[in-house]
Every structure is written in structure tokens, then in C-alpha cells.
Amino acid sequence: MDERTFGRSGQHASVVGLGTWQLGADWGDVDDKEALSVLEAAAESGVTFFDTADVYGDGRSEQTIATFLRSRPDLHVLVATKMGRRVDQIPENYVLDNFRAWNDRSRRNLGVDRLDLVQLHCPPTPVYSTDAVYDALDTLVEEERIAAYGVSVETCEEALTAIARPGVAGVQIIFNAFRMKPLQRVLPAAQEAGVGIIVRVPLASGLLSGKYTKDTVFPENDHRTYNRHGESFDVGETFSGVDYATGVEAAAEFSALAPEGYTPAQLALRWIIQQPGVTTVIPGARNPEQARANAAAAALPELSEETLTAIRDLYEGRIKDQVENRW
What we know:
Structural class: alpha/beta
Strand order of the largest sheet: 3-4-5-6-7-8-9-10
Helix content: 25-40%
Number of strands: 10
Largest sheet: 8 strands, parallel
Shape: globular
Order of helices and strands: EEEHEHEHEHEHEHEHHHEHH
Radius of gyration: 18 Å
Distance between the termini: 31 Å
């Protein structure tokens, strides 16, 4: 699988990575054996980038990755984790002493002395503009606790603020065929600055797979049930902030655009891979078959201009007004 470079850091990531939120919590139940099988299938398919967080299953996702990588010392995988969501979301909590404590915990969970890439996990907006925050992150690099750092964001403005900081290696942002606003300014700015872009929620929480109907029922411990209106965290993380009924109808139209040989999910991933400025896209997977199918999107032919235009027209006509003024 092709790899791309996080420009400022010199690190590399496969164009399709693996998001491991599903392996920790909030997507229904996944047992440990199945979680390890997902990691194995992704790695065997050429994935060299795993994204996790200290809050996914309260460390379970990090620990599962550590267990897997100990069993496969032959693999070179860049592991990106995130920190900050295990405390009250106030700017005052984003200080060096807390960073060190959070870093210690993630290093223990992942079984390493130095973390490859650490991202602030969608902190309060003022954090992105605070000089002391970046000074503290630089200190973690100097202390060899982390090799590089970045941020995960909710809004395009937060992304642009972070991209302007010279030490930021990567920005993680929601971007998909139902969330196109990053095309306007974020991707060009990142490309110019040499900042990596990690694309999360690429399938709009599964909507773009075309598998759901208006009658689909998700488990009670799945955020697609309990966060549909932003009850627990930013609603933009669930179905990309698109109203579910609208999303299901639009997803059916999206599925019909898939060229021969593509699943709708692969169409969604291939569309992202083709956008200039994207470093890696991190779909999750609940089973090995999904992990392999997601990785296979990297090898599919580029989409035609006709298909790209049809996807844009669908977004403009069905989705844009719901999401573009919010994030």
C-alpha cells in the first residue's frame, strides 16, 4: 500500500490506516479476540498507521494495540494516540504536568518509552491558540516522551489555527463525502505548511456504507444511539452531524454512484484518498472482513471526473446546508 509523509515530522503512514475507537468502546461490544483479528487483518493488508486514544475503552484500545504489536515484532506501525478527554473540558487542564501524567499512562498502555504521535483530543477551542500549550508539547518532544505531536479538531477554524503552529505535525479532522468543508481552506493550508491530515469519520459513522435504513436499530452502548443529538459529545462525531433520516436517503443515492468493483464504503474512502492534502484516512472496522475491504480501497482505480461531480452535486443538494455552517 502507498505511504505518505507527515511533512514536518518525516513520519510515514499508509494512505488507509485503521481507527480503533471501535476496539475500545462506544460502538457496541467487540471481544478481545475479534479486536486482535481486526488489527491482524489490517496489518496483513498493508496498513501501517493505527489511530487510538487514551479514552477509548479507558485505555483498552491502546492496550489491545500493544498486545498485538508485541506478537508481531516484524511489523513497523506508526501508532498515533490522543490525550485530554479523560478530564473536565476546561482550558486550565491543558498544562504540562497533566500532559506528563497522561503521557505516562499512554506509554504504559502501549508498552513503549516514546510515543510516535500524540494528538490533543478535541480540546476546548481556546487551547488551540494558547502558546503555553505548544511550549508544553515541545517539552514532551525534548524529553523524548513523544516523537511528534498534533491535534484532533472539530472545526475548520481550529484546524487552521493549529496548522499555523510550527511544531504541529498532523491535524485530524472529520472529512468525507457528507462533510466537504475542509476542501475549501484546511487541506490547501496543510499542504502548503507540510502538515499531515488524518481523516476521521470517513464513512459518516457507517452511513456511507449504504447498509442502514431508517429502521436500523443500534445497540444502547453505541454512540449512534446515545449521541445522535449531541447528548454526550459533539454531534458532528455521529453521522458527521447529518440528520439520520436525511443521511439514510442521501446514502442510498451515494451508493448508486459506486463504479463497478467498488462497494459504497470503498467509494467513500477512494474519494478521500484522491483529495490533495490528505495523508491518511482512518476508517474503523468491527471485524477482519471490514478491515481488509477498507484497505483494498487504496488499490482501486481513481474515480472519474463524472463520479466526482456527481458526489459533489449530491453533497450540495442534500447535505451542505445541514453541516457547513457548524464545523
